[in-house]
């Protein structure tokens, strides 16, 4: 019988100003991924920080610790720069064809659209699937995301608990 190798799962949660009203919900999703799928979870705005150890903790002060780690919460968003940091600093050559990367973001980016497309392409060239979970019913309309659309495995609106049921359909 063949062993089944589970994919490595990475979750990147946008905690910028434009995501302020959605960030807490998306962080809870990240925590579920962390606890159930052993995902590594990161938050980003103008910089990227891994929060996996905080999410594995059962401390009641988790949110306070996350806020300390993500100082600048509510700032701008640099999606391209953070995807590059994720790839070069945090996962390196470990990212492969069985792996899944979930970006939870509205897609607004202050980096140039070409940089965002290049960063997404670099993740896809490693063979990983990249899913974009967004808080609005419509797909992100930013120029960066529209230009990169062909590289993103799938978009999914996640804006309430009921919409989470659709996550199991992503492949």
SSE layout and pairings?
Elements: E1 9-14, H1 23-37, E2 40-44, E3 48-50, H2 52-56, H3 62-69, H4 79-91, E4 100-104, H5 113-125, E5 129-134, H6 143-148, E6 154-157
Helix pairs in contact: 4-5
> Can you give the helix content as a percent range?
25-40%
Count helical runs. Answer: 6
Please state the CA-atom Rg, rounded to the nearest Å: 15 Å
Order of helices and strands: EHEEHHHEHEHE
By secondary-structure content and strand pairing, the structural class works out as alpha/beta
Instruction: Give the oligomer, counting copies of the same chain as homo and different chains as hetero.
Output: single chain
**Mean pLDDT across every amino acid position:** 86
Envelope shape:
globular
Question: How would you sum up this structure, described in words?
Answer:
The relative contact order is 0.16. The protein contains six helices and six strands, in the order E-H-E-E-H-H-H-E-H-E-H-E. It has helices spanning 23-37, 52-56, 62-69, 79-91, 113-125, 143-148, and strands at 9-14, 40-44, 48-50, 100-104, 129-134, 154-157. Strand 5, helix 6 (143-148) and strand 6 (154-157) form a beta-alpha-beta unit. With 171 residues, it is α/β, with parallel strands linked by helices.
């Amino acid at each position: 019988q063949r062993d089944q190798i589970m994919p490595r799962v990475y979750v990147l949660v946008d905690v910028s100003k434009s995501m302020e009203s959605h960030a807490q919900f998306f962080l809870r999703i990240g925590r579920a991924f962390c606890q159930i799928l052993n995902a590594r979870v990161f938050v980003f705005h103008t910089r990227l920080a891994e929060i996996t150890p905080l999410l594995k903790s059962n401390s009641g002060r988790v949110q306070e610790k996350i806020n300390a780690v993500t100082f600048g919460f509510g700032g701008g968003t640099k999606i391209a720069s953070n995807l590059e940091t994720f790839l070069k600093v945090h996962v390196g050559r470990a990212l492969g064809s069985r792996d899944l990367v979930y970006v939870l973001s509205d897609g607004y980016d202050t980096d140039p659209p070409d940089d965002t497309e290049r960063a997404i392409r670099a993740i896809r060239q490693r063979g990983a699937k990249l899913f974009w979970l967004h808080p609005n019913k419509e797909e992100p309309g930013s120029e960066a995301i529209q230009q990169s659309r062909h590289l993103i495995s799938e978009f999914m609106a996640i804006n309430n608990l009921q919409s989470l049921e659709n996550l199991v359909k992503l492949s």
